[in-house]
What we know:
Radius of gyration: 24 Å
Largest sheet: none
Helix content: over 70%
Number of helices: 21
Shape: globular
Number of strands: 0
Order of helices and strands: HHHHHHHHHHHHHHHHHHHHH
Amino acid sequence: MERLSKFFWFICLFIVGVMISIVTLENGLLLSVLSFLLVFLFTKKVKLKNFPLFLFLFSLITRIVAILLVEIPIQSDYYIMYDAAISVIHGDFSFGTSFYFSNWGYQLGHVFYQALMLKIFNSVLFLKILNCVYSSVIVLFVYLLLKKMVSENSSRMMSLIYSISLYPIYLNMTLSNQQLSLMLTLIGIYFLFHKKNDWIHLLIVGLFIGLGNIERPEGIVYLLTIFIYYVFTLKDVKLILKNTAIVVICSLLITNLASFVLIKSGVSEIGLKNTNSYWKFLLGFNYEYNGKNNPVDDQYGDSLEKEKEVLFERITDVKRIPGLFYNKIRIQWLYSDLEFSFNANHVSKISNKVMGIAMNYIKVINLLVIGLAFIGLLVQVRQKNLEKSLTTNHSTGNIQHNIGLFFMINLLVYFGVYLLIEVNARYYYNPQIAMILLAGLGLDKLKFDKQIKCS
């Protein structure tokens, strides 16, 4: 009887386990827990001497396999820029005067980048593979930055978690301009925390942020972050202004030089400028669509005065702003509108059931990272050297705290920006780096419970 009762106990346990597994599989929880568990076991059990090389190759192979398995049609802005790149190859630059590029000239940087790459190898797959390379380098720099902040095991775990995050992997299947831009920017930021931190390294910082800004105009966010960061870490006003000026001037020179070349060559009358500065804010304050891109606002696109008028009406409707901000936070930071941004209906060779599980997995992983980032923020604030860090001239002894402080500021700047402009889950790509690095602080505190040290 005892054996029989154990048998029934095992069967019941198995049945309940299957039910729990099905539920947690569909809502993404099971896969998320397994991901963290596997990464934890791999980090603890597998000791790799050349982990950076492994991380890069693992990320690259994973991404290339993904783009070979999943097909995403070129659409929306991606198609416009790709089509313009094809025109460049054939010597046709008439697209420069089109409505799209006459308003948003800053997209021309990506057009000419794609044209240059397509001249080397005329294949959409080649462009996607290049994105895989850039995003793999991003994973590598996530690890290198984490290594300056936390223990080796924590930096390995968190960089591996980021390397298998589905949404960054998915973006490689599109012709996005985010990978190259972010890679260049992160290289620049890495030099910001060089031990010497002299004017030569600051020039390098400005150079790479400027190059990244040509590809995608997010440089202003990082320049503002750098200025605020220097206000906190440098006690000398002259030094704050000098260091910031070196980075900003170098970055602007690079961007304006590229813009000047486009104008002088006759490709565009505006270069890389944005002549429709109200548009992102107009979309961002659309209450019916919760700040997302929408077809309704297209009717205002050809009139700046009309855009300004409608935008003023929306901004002055202050009673609706809290609700709008609430919804925008859910879309931008909590992936509540992920399916729309993921273009799930256009993904081939994947069933709706698998796609649904993937969506939930992305959301749960994101929530776990946000939770760890919250712990990381508490660690950052409670650092014993906080007061000292805020009153020393970029002391290398506080470098681990300074990196955390920098990306804390970067996260806040992005948060403020996305409250005001158009939102899309895809735009989380850049600020996710800050979230991952802060999550690394939280993971290190939970897992090792020891003082963070610079490595």
